[in-house]
TrEMBL record:
One of its GO terms (biological process) is proteolysis. It comes from Rotaria magnacalcarata. One of its GO terms (molecular function) is cysteine-type endopeptidase activity. Residues 1-191 form the Peptidase C14 caspase domain. This is Peptidase C14 caspase domain-containing protein. InterPro entries: Caspase-like_dom_sf (IPR029030), Caspase-related_regulators (IPR052039), Pept_C14_caspase (IPR011600). It holds the Pfam family Peptidase_C14.
Length: 192
């Protein structure tokens, strides 16, 4: 879970969500639970390499991300703590910044699948819009002051279940008065 962003709007719930899911997975006897909180891009990439290496054939793999998400062209990106402010960047600069400073979600799903697990449960608890104008500031949209919007694109991989916290073109609430996101609240209720 990433909420303590350095250059974009901070979020309250992602850390709570990651901690709650980690605790639940340990209680239901997942053998490896790797919780990453407020990590930089390099830290996340290294943690993912370690996580990927731990996966054995026929494992049940659950990947969960809470934080900011962006779609650029046909790819979904997960934003680390140190993701730069892209407000003043042109389209070419934005594409370069994303590829260098964010985590490509489809690449993660592909690498997990290469390990031949029994199943992959891939959960993304982030908005499905980017660069929005006039929205409630307590959402997981990256920037509430821009006018362009795009939704996270569909993701596919055989042997996987991919779930988003919201429908295309909608927002995930990050309500300060709540302990967890709505997605995590219901996930915890039904997994417990």
């Amino acid at each position: 879970g990433i909420g303590d962003y350095e250059n974009v709007r901070k979020l309250k719930n992602p850390q709570n969500d990651a901690k709650a899911l980690s605790s639940l997975l340990q209680r239901i006897r997942f053998t490896t639970v790797d919780q990453q909180l407020d990590k930089t891009c390099n830290q996340l990439k290294h943690a993912f390499v370690d996580f990927e290496a731990s996966i054995q054939s026929n494992d049940i793999v659950l990947f969960y991300f809470a934080g900011h998400g962006i779609q650029w062209e046909d790819q979904n990106y997960l934003l680390p703590k140190d993701f730069p402010d892209m407000h003043a960047a042109d389209a070419t600069e934005k594409a370069a910044l994303l590829k260098k400073n964010a985590i490509n979600a489809q690449d993660i799903l592909n690498k997990l699948s290469d390990r031949e697990p029994y199943v992959i449960i891939f959960l993304l608890d982030c908005c499905r819009k980017y660069f929005l104008r006039n929205i409630d500031l307590n959402t997981r949209a990256l920037n509430a002051n821009e006018s362009r919007s795009v939704g996270l694109s569909a993701m596919h991989k055989s042997g996987s279940l991919v779930a988003f916290a919201c429908a295309p073109g909608t927002l995930v609430d990050d309500k300060p008065e709540e302990q967890n996101s709505l997605f995590m609240k219901h996930l915890l209720k039904h997994l417990a």
